[in-house]
Amino acid sequence: MGEENVHVPAMQLWSYGSGTVHLNDNDFEHLLFCVQCQSLLNEFINILEQLPSANPNQAA
Ligand SMILES: [Zn+2]
Fold first, then answer.
1. 27: domain range?
2. 27 alpha carbon to ligand 1 midpoint, in Å?
3. Is residue 56 a part of any domain in this protein?
4. pTM across the whole model
5. Contact between residue 8 and residue 37 where contact means Cβ atoms under 8 Å apart
6. How far, in Å, CA of 43 to CA of 14, rounded?
7. Overall number of domains in the chain
């Protein structure tokens, strides 16, 4: 059924998580319904949040 669906590339998710890029409509729609991509994105966000100098404004 959804086997031929291509996951959002990890680099896209990483950049999206870091707020540097926007996903295109296809990728965003895929992300909405793909648990795998969502959990991967969550992992990236967790990592990004723990990076010390990721964002200059450290709103704790
Ligand atoms: Zn996916």
1. 10-49
2. 8
3. no
4. 0.74
5. yes
6. 9
7. 1
CB 41 within 8 A of CB 30: no
Neighbours of ion ligand 1 (CB under 5 A): 7, 34, 36-37
Query: pLDDT tens digits, residue range 12-55?
Result: 999 999 999 999 999 999 999 999 999 999 999 999 999 876 55
Does residue 5 lie within any of the structural domains?
Answer: no
CA of 5 to the centre of ligand 1 (A): 8
Residue 22 within any structural domain of the chain: yes
CA dist., res. 22 & res. 13, Å (int): 9
pLDDT digits (tens, 9 = 90+) for 1-13: 555 668 999 999 9
